[in-house]
UniProtKB/TrEMBL annotation:
Keywords from the named record: Transferase
Classification via PANTHER family: GLYCOSYLTRANSFERASE, UDP-GLCNAC:BETAGAL BETA-1,3-N-ACETYLGLUCOSAMINYLTRANSFERASE-LIKE PROTEIN 1
Organism: Geodermatophilus poikilotrophus
Protein known as: Glycosyl transferase family 2
Family annotation (Pfam families): Glycos_transf_2 (PF00535)
Record field: transmembrane: none
Domain Glycosyltransferase 2-like: 3-133
InterPro entries per the UniProt record, alphabetical: Glyco_trans_2-like, Nucleotide-diphossugar_trans
Organism domain of life: Bacteria
GO terms assigned for molecular function: hexosyltransferase activity
Amino acid sequence: LVSILVPTYNGERFLKAALRSALEQSHRNVEVLVGDDGSTDRTPEVLAAVAAADDRVRVLRFDPNIGPLENPRRLLAEARGEYVKFLMHDDVLGTDCVRDLVRGMQQHPEATMAFSHRVLIDEQGKPVPDHEFPKLAGRPGLLDGRQLGDHVLLNCTNVIGEPTTVLFRRADVSPDDLWTVDGRTVDVLNDVQLWLRLLAEGPAFYTPRTLSRFRFHGGQNSHNPRYVGRGERDWSRLVDWGARHGFLAGEGQERRAQARALLEAAARLHQLIDTPDHGAALEAAYLSTAALVELTGPTSITRTTGLPERAHSSVVRDRFAQELDVWTRQYPVALAAPALDPAEVDATVQAFRELLAAGAARQAVVAIPPADLDRAVPLLEKALAAGPDIDLELVPAEDPATLLPDPWLAVTPHGRWWHHGRALATWTFHLHTGLR
């Protein structure tokens, strides 16, 4: 038995075609569960007529409505089939869709999902001109789950397809796990979230036959600016989740994926900047930037929680207190040239403690004019005695900016520019407070 799940809301325009395609499957052993989410058009009448004509159709009406994420979750909980296929109310299945995908799963029991090539159609059901989804293989067979997931995440592109495209085993998916990562809802890329969960457990069966048709029309959320900005935020989160669940394990892959997510978020932000809906795209750009700061830092940050929680934690925010090029490498030397003021020397030594602990540099050096060395020594000794011990080298230099070859890290109070831009990066701190 295959459960075809059809969540709908005010779907009268396209719903008949969708249901006809489900009931005319060459694989006859199907149940069609339709969740009517409180429709206010003629959808209830359409469903009543179809259910009366075919006892394989069962309608669940939710009134008041429960929303586009809870509707399919309720349908999945009600599904009795060994296999499940979602069918969006504006999409259409090819006659052999269920048959071919079930056969693929039966022939390859290690596969966790099955999907096919699909075609984009317009409101009249005709293929959209000059558009073709790429075929992922030339013949039916298995695609490695990790490699396919990596491809999705590295390109921030759903090459698998929409919910209508995929079939999976009911036993492999809990309704409680639908549409969430790290305990938070995935707002837009719900399907990608599910595909990644399945691909993390095994390969996918794929056929290049065109077995479903995805309808593109003006009533879809993909045209809604509130919706598209949140989609970029989803990519930042999914890349992070994927990397913590076995995807993007190759050298530099996670950084490249987050850089791609950042690029997409920035482009969307530019598109939406004059609207009140640009906030989600701005947050997406921040999340991917925070992830890159984590990944490029000289010391790793423990990643036991989701990206939004980490990105807004004090650990990551502290890194944003410095110029971000501080974190792109571990510098051989951090160099300071403090004025011989006790408060500034104390703050400089504390800054060295912090940057060494963070792994920003391997060696700490203080440059003092030769004539001032005798005055500097007791100030430095007092500052070192006031906290955890660190190795600190004192060197005489009239012009500390010319002391070291690249790359080196300047350590200086805010507003001080003694290195004249010759340092590759600058670690700054506030005087007196010790705050960065």
